[in-house]
C-alpha cells in the first residue's frame, strides 16, 4: 500500500505555477489607446532632440579644401603626375572666427581601406613590438612581407605600406606676414592604440631593434625615423601611423591630422587669410581618388552632421502623423476597448 | 496424424528448413535414427538495446549526425573555410557546429549509457536453470536456447519460454503482460499436456524432447510450434504448441508458485525485443514549411553570393580598382585562372553570408520541442486519478501539429465510451429479462422475475440453454482472493471472494449479468466448467474445445459435453455473423429486439447453439486438431475449420450490454466542432449502436441531416446513384446557405462494405470519374461522419483517404485498442487512450492520454500554444538572420566586394548562439497570447491558426520584408552617420569595426525588442531573459573589447565598443535606428488590430475587460 502511494505521488505532476503554465504574468496589448499617446510622446521628444541636433550641427564650422589638383588651374596640378618631391600651396580665407578647438583632417575618396585583404595585411604581433615577428612576419602581409632581396619588412603589409605621407603646414597671414599656425600632433589617435595596442620593442635606441629588417617599400624613411624629435611619437606609436592603421569604414573617409590647440589659436582661427602648403606625395590619381583637407570644429555631438538632426525630426514628425492616422482609423473602426 | 508429421518433416528436410528452428530441450540430442536437423546457432540471452559501444560511439554517432542535411551543410561550410581563404575564420562556423554536435553526442551518449546500464541490470539478473537434475542459479544473459528454466511467483520471464509444467495441478499458470501490452488482467497459459505432470527438477530434467517452432516474429499473440517427446523405444509423441504455451519475456508470473519452462527464443530474438523496433518518423506541417523556407533562404543565399561575385568582377574591370597600387596581389593569386578566382570568391561570399541559415535554429527548434513537451506530461488537468497517470509524450516532434488538426478520427468503444460494460438485459426467444439485482442487491428477486415472466415448458428449455450458453461460452477466468483457503473458497465461490477477469469487458459483463440472473460461473477445473444454477446446484460441463474470438469472424464458440453425455456447441457473436448461420429459432423477434437495443446505444450479442451428434463431434474434432497441428498457415486453416464447424445454429436469444459514454465526451466533441475540427467516428460496431452513441455524444445533433451511405441503401439503388444524389443534396444546401455554413449541417453514415465499394477503383464508371472524389466532396461538407462496421485496416484506409485528398488536411486519430493501432500510425498525429483494452494503442501512439476528454485541452490549449510558439520561433529566426546578414551584403557594395565582414568574428559566432537565442527559446516555451481559460472557453479561437496560418507565404514574406527593411535602416542609418564626420568631441575618427559594432548593437537591440513587442505573456522569466540577454550582450562586448586577449592573433575589437559608447551621437543614433526599425511593425499591429481584428485579438481585449470589471466590483 505504502509503495503504491509513493508510486502515485511520483507519477502525479507537480502542481507548481510553472509546470501548470500559470505563472503570474503582465499581459500588455499594443492597442490604439496606448500606442497613440506613446507615439505622440515619442514624436514630440524626437522632434525636440532633432531640432537641438540640427541647430548644433549648423553651428559647426567647416572648411574643406580639395587639393587633388585635377583641374589644370589648381595650384597642385603640377604635383599630380610629378613623382618627385613637390610642394604646392593653396590660400583660403576665413570670414569669421573659426571657433576652437579646430581639428585638421585630411580626407581621401574612392580609397578602399576597407578591402578585406588590405585590412588583414598586417601583423599585430609585430606592431605589439614582438621581435620574433620582425624577422619572420606573418604571411598575412603577403605580398608586402619581404622585399626583393627577401629581407623582412617591418612593419609589413599593405596597410602600413600605403601610409599617407602628404604633410601640411598652415600659415596665417597677419599683416601681410605669414605666421605659421602650430599644429598639435598629439592625441589624434585613440588613447588605447597609443598606450596599449601598439608598442615599440623595448630596445634603445629604437634603431637597433630593426636590424636585419627593411622599411616598407613605399616609405621614404624607416619607421624608427617617423618622428626623430620625440621618442614617444616614434616607431609604432607614431600617432600618424596609428591614425592610418585604424581602417576607415567607408571608401570616402577623413582622418584626423592635427589639432590646433596652441595658445594663440586656442580660441579658434581668427578671421583672415590662410595659406595651406602641401608636401604632395601621395598618389590618388590612378584610382580617381580625391584628396582634401578639412578644418572643422566639434560640438558635444561631434562633427558636422545634419543627417542625425534631420532624421530625428523626420522620424518624430512621422510618429505624430502616424498617431493622427491611427486616431482616425481608431475612430472609424471603433474596436473593443472604448467604454 | 503421425503420417502428416512425417511428411512434414520430409518436406522440411528437402527445403533446408530455414523457416523453423529445432530446440533440444535440456540440450539432449534426439535419439539416433530421428531425422537429421540442421543445427542452428542461436544468440545468447543478452539484450542489447543500446546503439553504440565504447569503440564505435564516435564514428557511428558522427556519421549519424552528419547524415542530417543541416549538419552536413554546416560541415561543408566549415570545410570550405578551412580550405580556401575566406573572410571569416573557420572558428565562426566550426565552433557552433562543434557545440551542436557535442551537445547532441553527449545527450545521445548519455541516453545510450542509460540503456547500457539498463541492459546490464537485465542481463545480469539471476535466473534459475535446471541442470543435472538440480536448480542452478545463473545470470540471465547466459541462458541459451534449450535451457530449462524455473520461474517463481512474481518473477519476470527471462526469455520466451515454452511452458512445460506448473506447480498448479491443472497445468496452468497466470501471467500479467503489463509491461508488454499494458493489459493488467491475468492471462492463463497452459503447460504442454504431456509434460504437465513433471513436478520436480529430476522429472523435468529427464524429459527427452525436441521443440520445433517457427523462427521468431514480432507478433505477440502468434506462435506455432510442435513438441516431440521421445520415450524409450516408443514412437515419438508430438503435440502442437500455440501462443497459449508460450510465455513471453517481460511478462510476470502470478498466482503460481513456480513453473518449469524451456527457452525457445532468447536475447534479441524474443518477441519483446523484436517489438522494440521504432515507428516510422512523422513530420509536422510546421517542419515542412520550415524546410520550404529554408530552401527559399538557400536560394537567397546563393543568389546573394552570385550577385556579389558578378558585381565584383564587373566592378574590377578597370585595373586600378582590380589592383590599386596600395593593394597588390601576391604572385600566386595573379597566376590563378580567373574562373578559379571567381569560384573561390563565390565560395567566400557563401561563407560570409552562410549565417542566414543558422545552425542554432535546428537546435532551438529541437530544444523547444523536447522541453515544451514536458508541459503536456506535467499538466495536472490531464492526470487521471484512477489510472494514476497523466498524459504521455512519445514523440515531441509533433507538438505543434496538435494545433493544426482538421480531422479527428476517433474510435468509439473505450474512446468515446468508457468500455465499462454493464449487462442491461437479454432477450430469450423473444422474451426480455432484466436483472433487478443491482437495485435491491438481492439475487433472488432477479431469479423470481424470470419465473414470473416465463411459464411455457419449451421456453424454459430454451431459457436454460441460453443462460448456460452465456455461462459457458466465454474465456473468463475466476480470480480467487489469495487469502481464502480451499474450504472457504468452496463455499463462497462466486461471492465477493472472487472476481472475473477477461481480456474483453463484454464477457465479464455478461458473466456477471448471468450471476445476477442466478447462474454463477464458478471455475474451470480439470477441463470441467462448473456452474452454480439458481437452485444452488453445481452443474459440470466438460470443456472440449474453445473456438476463440477473432475480429474477422466476430464470434466465438465453445464445444462442451454435458454430464448426460450430450455434445453442445454454444456460439455468441455479432448479429451479422450469427444470423446467416442460424437455421431455426425466433429470428425475426430477436432481430427486431437487437435493432431496438442498438438504437438505444447498447452493444448487442446474439447467442446460438447447436447440438452435435457423436459423429459430428468427431468430425469437428478432426478438423480442429488438424488445423491446430499445422505449422504453416495455421491461422488460415483454423479459420476454415471454424467456418465449417460453426453452422446450422439454433438461435437462442440476444444480450444487451451498455457501454456508458466517457465523462465529458459530448462536451469535448462539441468543443472540437466549434474549433472547426471535423470529427469522424470509426467503429466496428453496428450502425444503430454507433449512431446512438453519436447522438448521445452530440456528434449528431437533432438538427443534423443524416446522409446514409450504407449497404441497406445501396441494395436498393446503385452506389453510383446514391452517391450522386447525396452530392446533389449537399451542394444544393451549400448554394442556398452560401457562406453561412452553420444553418444546417450534415452527418454522414457509411459502413465498411460500402466504403470498400467506394474505394474500389471501378471500371464501369470511369467515364463519370472516380467515386472517391464524389465521396470526398460529400465528406467535405459534412460536419460529422460515422463509419461503422469497420475493420482495423479500413480505419487506416479512411485516414489515408482523407490525408491524401487534395487539401491535405492534418488528421488526428485517437483510439484505445489494438484495432486502432493502424489508424494511429497512419494519421498525422496518433493519440492513444490508456484504456481498458491494453496499452497497445498508447504504445504506438505519438501521445497517450488517460481519457477522451483530455483531447480538448490537448488540442485547444497545448496544440494552440505549441503552434503559435513554434510559428513565431521559425519566422523570428529567419527574420533575425535577415537583419543580421543583409547589412553585411550591403556592405560589400562599399568595400569593393572584397568579402570584408561587417562584424567581428565573435559577434558573427555568438549572435545566434547566445545574444539572440535565449529570448526566443523562452518565448517559444512559455508564450501565451491568450490565457488557458480563454482557450478552453472559446474553442473557435482554434480556427485562427487553422491551415498553418502563421506560416503561410504572405506571413513569411512579411517577416522577410521586415527583416530587409530593418537591415536597410541599420546599414544606411549607420552609413549616413559615418559619412565623413566625427562622432567624438575630441575629433578622433572611428574605424570600420566601430561601424560594424554600431550596426550590430542596433541589430541585437532591435531583434530582441521586436520579440519583446510580440510577447504577450510577460512572466518574470521573460523579463529576466530578455533584459538579461541584452545586458549580457553589453557586458560581453565590454569584456571582449576591454582586454587584450592573448590567444587571439588580432586585437581589432580592442576598446571599440567603449569608444563607441563614449560618443553621444552613437547613443542617439542607436536609439533612432532602433525606433525606426520597430515603428512599422508597431503601426501594422495597431492598424490590423483596429481594422480587422482576429478572434484571438478580440478575446484578448474581452479578457482585459473581464479583469477591469472584476476590479471594479471588488472596489
From TrEMBL, chain A:
An individual GO BP term: phospholipid translocation
Top-rank lineage group of the source organism: Eukaryota
Transmembrane feature ranges: 29-55, 310-333
Classification via InterPro entries: CDC50/LEM3_fam
Localization per Swiss-Prot or TrEMBL: Membrane
One cellular component (GO) term of this entry: plasma membrane
Family: Belongs to the CDC50/LEM3 family.
Name listed for the protein in its UniProt record: Cell cycle control protein
Keywords: Membrane, Transmembrane, Transmembrane helix
UniProtKB/TrEMBL annotation, chain B:
Location in or out of the cell: Cell membrane; Early endosome; Endoplasmic reticulum membrane; Membrane
Domain P-type ATPase C-terminal per the UniProt entry, residue ranges: 842-1094
Pfam families: Cation_ATPase, E1-E2_ATPase, PhoLip_ATPase_C, PhoLip_ATPase_N
Lineage: Eukaryota, Metazoa, Chordata, Craniata, Vertebrata
EC nos: 7.6.2.1
Domain (P-type ATPase N-terminal): residue spans on this chain: 39-93
Protein name: Phospholipid-transporting ATPase
Record GO cellular component, one term: endoplasmic reticulum membrane
Gene3D superfamilies in the record: Calcium-transporting ATPase, cytoplasmic domain N, Calcium-transporting ATPase, cytoplasmic transduction domain A, HAD superfamily/HAD-like
Natural source organism: Poecilia mexicana
TM regions (residue ranges): 292-315, 346-365, 906-926, 956-978, 990-1012, 1024-1048, 1054-1079
Residues the entry annotates as binding ATP: 411-413, 507, 549, 572, 603, 683-685, 789, 795, 819-820
Enzyme class: translocase
Quaternary structure, from the entry: Component of a P4-ATPase flippase complex which consists of a catalytic alpha subunit ATP11A and an accessory beta subunit TMEM30A.
Amino acid at each position: 500500500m505504502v509503495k503504491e502511494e509513493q508510486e502515485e505521488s511520483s507519477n502525479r505532476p507537480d502542481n507548481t505555477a510553472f509546470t501548470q503554465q500559470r505563472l503570474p504574468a503582465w499581459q500588455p496589448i499594443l492597442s490604439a489607446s496606448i500606442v497613440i499617446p506613446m507615439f505622440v510622446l515619442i514624436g514630440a521628444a524626437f522632434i525636440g532632440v532633432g531640432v537641438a541636433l540640427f541647430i548644433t550641427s549648423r553651428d559647426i564650422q567647416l572648411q574643406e579644401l580639395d587639393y587633388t589638383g585635377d583641374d589644370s588651374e589648381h595650384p597642385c596640378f603640377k604635383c599630380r603626375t610629378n613623382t618627385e618631391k613637390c610642394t604646392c600651396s593653396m590660400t583660403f580665407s576665413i570670414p569669421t572666427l573659426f571657433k576652437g578647438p579646430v581639428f585638421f583632417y585630411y580626407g581621401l575618396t574612392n580609397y578602399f581601406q576597407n578591402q578585406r585583404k588590405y585590412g588583414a595585411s598586417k601583423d599585430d604581433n609585430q606592431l605589439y613590438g614582438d621581435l620574433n615577428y620582425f624577422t619572420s612576419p606573418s604571411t598575412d602581409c603577403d605580398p608586402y612581407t619581404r622585399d626583393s632581396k627577401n629581407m623582412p619588412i617591418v612593419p609589413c603589409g599593405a596597410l602600413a605600406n600605403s601610409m599617407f605621407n602628404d604633410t601640411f603646414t598652415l600659415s596665417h597671414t597677419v599683416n601681410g606676414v605669414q605666421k605659421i599656425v602650430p599644429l598639435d600632433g598629439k592625441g589624434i589617435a585613440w588613447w588605447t592604440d597609443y598606450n596599449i595596442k601598439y608598442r615599440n620593442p623595448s630596445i634603445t635606441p629604437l634603431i637597433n631593434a630593426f636590424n636585419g629588417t627593411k622599411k616598407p617599400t613605399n616609405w621614404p624613411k624607416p619607421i624608427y625615423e617617423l618622428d626623430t624629435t620625440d621618442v614617444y611619437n616614434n616607431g609604432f606609436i607614431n600617432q600618424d601611423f596609428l591614425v592610418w592603421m585604424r581602417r576607415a569604414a567607408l571608401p570616402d573617409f577623413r582622418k584626423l591630422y592635427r589639432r590646433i590647440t596652441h595658445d594663440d589659436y586656442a580660441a579658434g582661427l581668427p578671421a583672415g587669410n590662410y595659406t595651406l602648403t602641401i608636401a604632395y606625395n601621395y598618389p590618388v590619381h590612378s584610382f580617381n581618388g580625391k584628396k582634401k583637407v578639412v578644418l572643422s570644429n566639434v560640438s558635444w555631438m561631434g562633427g558636422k552632421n545634419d543627417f542625425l538632426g534631420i532624421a530625428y525630426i523626420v522620424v518624430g514628425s512621422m510618429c505624430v502623423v502616424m498617431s493622427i492616422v491611427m486616431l482616425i482609423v481608431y475612430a472609424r473602426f471603433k474596436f473593443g476597448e472604448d467604454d | 496424424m503421425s503420417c502428416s508429421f512425417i511428411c512434414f518433416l520430409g518436406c522440411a528436410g528437402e527445403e533446408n528448413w530455414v523457416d523453423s528452428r529445432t530446440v533440444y530441450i535440456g540440450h539432449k540430442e534426439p535419439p539416433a535414427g530421428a531425422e537429421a536437423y540442421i543445427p542452428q546457432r542461436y544468440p545468447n540471452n543478452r539484450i542489447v538495446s543500446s546503439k553504440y559501444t565504447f569503440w564505435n560511439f564516435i564514428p557511428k554517432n558522427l556519421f549519424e549526425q552528419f547524415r542530417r542535411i543541416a549538419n552536413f551543410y554546416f560541415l561543408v561550410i566549415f570545410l570550405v573555410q578551412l580550405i580556401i581563404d575566406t573572410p571569416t575564420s573557420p572558428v565562426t562556423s566550426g565552433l557552433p557546429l562543434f557545440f551542436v554536435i557535442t551537445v547532441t553526442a553527449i545527450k545521445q551518449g548519455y541516453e545510450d549509457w542509460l540503456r547500457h546500464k539498463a541492459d546490464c541490470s537485465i542481463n545480469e539478473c539471476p535466473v534459475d536453470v535446471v541442470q543435472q537434475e538440480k536448480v542452478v542459479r545463473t545470470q540471465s544473459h547466459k541462458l541459451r536456447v534449450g535451457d530449462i528454466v524455473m520461474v517463481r511467483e512474481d518473477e519476470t520471464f527471462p526469455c520466451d519460454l515454452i511452458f512445460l509444467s506448473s506447480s498448479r495441478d491443472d497445468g496452468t499458470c497466470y501471467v500479467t503482460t503489463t509491461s508488454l501490452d499494458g493489459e493488467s488482467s491475468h492471462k492463463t497459459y497452459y503447460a504442454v499436456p504431456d509434460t504437465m505432470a513433471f513436478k520436480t527438477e529430476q522429472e523435468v530434467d529427464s524429459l527427452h524432447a525436441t521443440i520445433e517452432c517457427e523462427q521468431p516474429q514480432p507478433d505477440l499473440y502468434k506462435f506455432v510450434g510442435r513438441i516431440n517427446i521421445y520415450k524409450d523405444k516408443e514412437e515419438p509423441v508430438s503435440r502442437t504448441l500455440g501462443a497459449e504455451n508460450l510465455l513471453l519475456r517481460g511478462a510476470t508470473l502470478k498466482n503460481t508458485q513456480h513453473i518449469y519452462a524451456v527457452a525457445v527464443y532468447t536475447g534479441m530474438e524474443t518477441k519483446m525485443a523484436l517489438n522494440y523496433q521504432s515507428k516510422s518518423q512523422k513530420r509536422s506541417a510546421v517542419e515542412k514549411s520550415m524546410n520550404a523556407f529554408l530552401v527559399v533562404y538557400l536560394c537567397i543565399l546563393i543568389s546573394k553570393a552570385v550577385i556579389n561575385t558578378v558585381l565584383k568582377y564587373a566592378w574590377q574591370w578597370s585595373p586600378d580598382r582590380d589592383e590599386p597600387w596600395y593593394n597588390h596581389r601576391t604572385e600566386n593569386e595573379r597566376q590563378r585562372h580567373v574562373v578559379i578566382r571567381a569560384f573561390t570568391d563565390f565560395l567566400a561570399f557563401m561563407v560570409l553570408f552562410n549565417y542566414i541559415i543558422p545552425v542554432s535554429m535546428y537546435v532551438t527548434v529541437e530544444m523547444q520541442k523536447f522541453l515544451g513537451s514536458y508541459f503536456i506530461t506535467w499538466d495536472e488537468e490531464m492526470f487521471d486519478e484512477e489510472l494514476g497517470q497523466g498524459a504521455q509524450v512519445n514523440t515531441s516532434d509533433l507538438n505543434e501539429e496538435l494545433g493544426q488538426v482538421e480531422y479527428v478520427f476517433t474510435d468509439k468503444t473505450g474512446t468515446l465510451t468508457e468500455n465499462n460494460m454493464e449487462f442491461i438485459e437479454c432477450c430469450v426467444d423473444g422474451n426480455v429479462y432484466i436483472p433487478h439485482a443491482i437495485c435491491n442487491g438481492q439475487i433472488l428477486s432477479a431469479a423470481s422475475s424470470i419465473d414470473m415472466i416465463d411459464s411455457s415448458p419449451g421456453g424454459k428449455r430454451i431459457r436454460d440453454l441460453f443462460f448456460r450458453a452465456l455461462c459457458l461460452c466465454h474465456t473468463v477466468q475466476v480470480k480467487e482472493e489469495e487469502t481464502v483457503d480451499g474450504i472457504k473458497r468452496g463455499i463462497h465461490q462466486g461471492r465477493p471472494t472472487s472476481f472475473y477477469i477477461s481480456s474483453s469487458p463484454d464477457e465479464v459483463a455478461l458473466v456477471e449479468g448471468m450471476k445476477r440472473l442466478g447462474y454463477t460461473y464458478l471455475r474451470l477445473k480439470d477441463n470441467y466448467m462448473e456452474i452454480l444454477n439458481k437452485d444452488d446446484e453445481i452443474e459440470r460441463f466438460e470443456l472440449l474445445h474453445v473456438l476463440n474470438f477473432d475480429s474477422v469472424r466476430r464470434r466465438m464458440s465453445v464445444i462442451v459435453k454435458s454430464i448426460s453425455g450430450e455434445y453442445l456447441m454454444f456460439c455468441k457473436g455479432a448479429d451479422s455473423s450469427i444470423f446467416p448461420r442460424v437455421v431455426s429459432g425466433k429470428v425475426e423477434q430477436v432481430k427486431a429486439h437487437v435493432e431496438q437495443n442498438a438504437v438505444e446505444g447498447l452493444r448487442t450479442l446474439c447467442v446460438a447453439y447447436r447440438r452435435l451428434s457423436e459423429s459430428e463431434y468427431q468430425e469437428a474434432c478432426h478438423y480442429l486438431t488438424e488445423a491446430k497441428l499445422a505449422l504453416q498457415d495455421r491461422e488460415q486453416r483454423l479459420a476454415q475449420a471454424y467456418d465449417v464447424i460453426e453452422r446450422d445454429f439454433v438461435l437462442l436469444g440476444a444480450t444487451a450490454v451498455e457501454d456508458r459514454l466517457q465523462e465529458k465526451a459530448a462536451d469535448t466533441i462539441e468543443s472540437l466542432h466549434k474549433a472547426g475540427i471535423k470529427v469522424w467516428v470509426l467503429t466496428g460496431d453496428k450502425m444503430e449502436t454507433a449512431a446512438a452513441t453519436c447522438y448521445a455524444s452530440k456528434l449528431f445533433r437533432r438538427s443534423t441531416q443524416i446522409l446514409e451511405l450504407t449497404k441497406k441503401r445501396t441494395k436498393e439503388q446503385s452506389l453510383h446513384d446514391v452517391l450522386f444524389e447525396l452530392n446533389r443534396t449537399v451542394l444544393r444546401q451549400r448554394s442556398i446557405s452560401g457562406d453561412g455554413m452553420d444553418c444546417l449541417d450534415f452527418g454522414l453514415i457509411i459502413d465498411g462494405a460500402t466504403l470498400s465499394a467506394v474505394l474500389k477503383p471501378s471500371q464501369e464508371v470511369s467515364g463519370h470519374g472516380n467515386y472517391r472524389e464524389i465521396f470526398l466532396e460529400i465528406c467535405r461538407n459534412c460536419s460529422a461522419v460515422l463509419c461503422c462496421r469497420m475493420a482495423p485496416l479500413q480505419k487506416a484506409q479512411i485516414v489515408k483517404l482523407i490525408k491524401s485528398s487534395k487539401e491535405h488536411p492534418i488528421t488526428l486519430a485517437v483510439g484505445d485498442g489494438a484495432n486502432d493501432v493502424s489508424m494511429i500510425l497512419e494519421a498525422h498525429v496518433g493519440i492513444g487512450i490508456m484504456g481498458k483494452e491494453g496499452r497497445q494503442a498508447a504504445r504506438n501512439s505519438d501521445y497517450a492520454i488517460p481519457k477522451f476528454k483530455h483531447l480538448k485541452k490537448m488540442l485547444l490549449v497545448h496544440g494552440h500554444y505549441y503552434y503559435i510558439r513554434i510559428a513565431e520561433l521559425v519566422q523570428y529566426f529567419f527574420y533575425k538572420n535577415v537583419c543580421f546578414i543583409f547589412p553585411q551584403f550591403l556592405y560589400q557594395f562599399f568595400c569593393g566586394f572584397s568579402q570584408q565582414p561587417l562584424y567581428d568574428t565573435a559577434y558573427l559566432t555568438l549572435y545566434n548562439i547566445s545574444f539572440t537565442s535565449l529570448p526566443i527559446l523562452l518565448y517559444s516555451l512559455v508564450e501565451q497570447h491568450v490565457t488557458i481559460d480563454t482557450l478552453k472557453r472559446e474553442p473557435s479561437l482554434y480556427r485562427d491558426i487553422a491551415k498553418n496560418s502563421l506560416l503561410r507565404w504572405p506571413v513569411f514574406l512579411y517577416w522577410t520584408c521586415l527583416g530587409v527593411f530593418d537591415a536597410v535602416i541599420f546599414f544606411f542609418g549607420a552609413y549616413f552617420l559615418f559619412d565623413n564626420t566625427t562622432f567624438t568631441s575630441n575629433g578622433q575618427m572611428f574605424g570600420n569595426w566601430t561601424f560594424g559594432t554600431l550596426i550590430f548593437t542596433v541589430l541585437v537591440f532591435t531583434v530582441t525588442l521586436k520579440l519583446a513587442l510580440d510577447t504577450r505573456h510577460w512572466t518574470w522569466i521573460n523579463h529576466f531573459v530578455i533584459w538579461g540577454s541584452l545586458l549580457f550582450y553589453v557586458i560581453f562586448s565590454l569584456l571582449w573589447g576591454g582586454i587584450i586577449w592573448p590567444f587571439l592573433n588580432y586585437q581589432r575589437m580592442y576598446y571599440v565598443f567603449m569608444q563607441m559608447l563614449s560618443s553621444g551621437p552613437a547613443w542617439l543614433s542607436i536609439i533612432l535606428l532602433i525606433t525606426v526599425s520597430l515603428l512599422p511593425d508597431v503601426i501594422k499591429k495597431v492598424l490590423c488590430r483596429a481594422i480587422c481584428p482576429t478572434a484571438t485579438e478580440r478575446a484578448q481585449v474581452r479578457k482585459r475587460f473581464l479583469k477591469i470589471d472584476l476590479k471594479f466590483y471588488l472596489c
